[in-house]
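Morning F.,

Quick status update on the modeling queue. The single chain you submitted on Monday has been processed. Sequence for confirmation:
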Amino acid sequence: MSDLFARGEKPEYLFWVGCAGAYDDRYKKVVRAFVKILTHLDVSYAVLGKEESCTGDPARRAGNEMLYQMQALRNIELFNKYGVKKILTICPHCFNILKNEYPDLGGSYEVINYTEFLDQFIRNGKLKIDPSVYGNCRVTYHDPCYLGRGNGIYDTPRSLLKNMTGHLVEMDRNRSFALCCGGGGGQMFKEAEKGNKEIYMERTEDALETRADVIATACPFCMNMLTDGIKYKNKEDEVRNLDIAEMIARSLNL
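Structure tokens below.
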């Protein structure tokens, strides 16, 4: 982003890649898919590159408030330095903390989740999806906690999926009653309590009961946990776990 400012350019959006998008090999594919869509739509955006750091969400959820504030204040200083006004996110954890918790530290920005962002382009006719790619696929959608219960975003992911398939099937536990993937609140980084069934396994079973060909997700934590669940159940040859951005990019032949 510093190179753009040096040339006198100021993009409309900052695309916040997030830790998973930067370091997790599986989720890097989601980032690339979303970038292809942004390029296809001719969106004016930039990334921070090596200047991007963690939002501080994992530190805060694990109880390290001091580390969270150190990370957040550094990011806010960087945002203000570049005059950032609008932030695009693909991770619900980043979305939630940037939107709802950074303002307490003086960092108030327009933070937009990618599902709502892309849904607007479909509604105004600028994003046209080929429904034949996933038209015959049976798809179920897992609600990420920080999109659903945390921010009330239930309809837009489903709207995007309905543009790609006529076979969207719901799990018994969905929307505000959806079960967590088991990765939130720092749980992804620790072992389950002794004697307890792994939450990710229970949620994977919910998804498999729908007999879906694709389990659609919109969160790196959810993708990680459900992919592990599919492997544990030996269903890799029958069920795919895809992010909505990946599905849209493929439907656009990108």
